[in-house]
Amino acid sequence: MTAQPKSGAVVLSEDLKNPAMEKLDLVRKWSINTYKCTRQILSEKLGRGSRTVDLELEAQIEVLRDNKRKYQHVIKLAQMLASQLSQIMQTQRQLGDAFADLSLKTPELHEEFGYNAETQKLLSKNGDTLLAAINFFISSVNTLVDKTIEDTMINIKQYEAARVEYDAYRTDLEELNLGPRDANTMPKIELSQQQFQIHREKYERMRNDVSVKLKFLEENKVKVLHNQLILFHNAIAAYYAGNQQQLEQTLKQFHIKLKMPGGDSPSWLEEH
Questions:
Q1: 60 and 213 Cβ atoms separated by less than 8 Å
Q2: Would the CA dihedral through 18, 195, 160, 56 be positive or negative?
Q3: Hey, is 211 helix, strand or coil?
Q4: What was the pLDDT predicted at 150?
Q5: Of 250, 254, 226, 225, nearest to 237 (Cα)?
Q6: What does the alpha-carbon distance between residue 119 and residue 131 come to, in Å, rounded to a whole number?
């Protein structure tokens, strides 16, 4: 800052003026862009404006959104199943302890109570194994939805914002081209053409990025769900068939380590 001693006026030096002007210019451009995009969105909602549509890509995005909702519903149901199974296991353990106590205190029914105690304990043990498999299924599908799919959804939102900007500047250019062409309007048309080109390139770049993301997501989704659905099916089938060996083999196949109650870790499973 350079102060004038007589008048008291303050003059901004160039190194301070330029950043201030740049910030002001950024605010101005942001305001103009926001206004154009808001006008475009309102125009589309009122049915007055046109919008650029990639039918194939839009269909893929809609399928992804629908699948995401369905996967979230499956996760919710699987969590309910795990919670109910955990409650059943707790009851089985208590029932097994009650039978074992009666087996010791009732000599004439020692074997009968003993058989039932062992059965309840075995069911509870198999339940621990099944619960580990279900929790692993929930964790894996939840990661697919909340991380992998959500990452793609962020790209989709950016693509949709770029589409709105592109259409907003396209509409501006079309309106200017319909008007007169003279010394006053030609600079505006040229500037509009430049802005239109910038946003068209951004839109096309974002559209290509989303297309690639969707392709890789589909491949990853199929691989993840293929393995998890096999795990879920084999674990459930083995549990209800009473096949303890097959149930334990299923956990080994998917590298799931069973954590017994009272262990150091609060989780039921560890992934290698």
A1: no
A2: negative
A3: helix
A4: 95
A5: 250
A6: 18
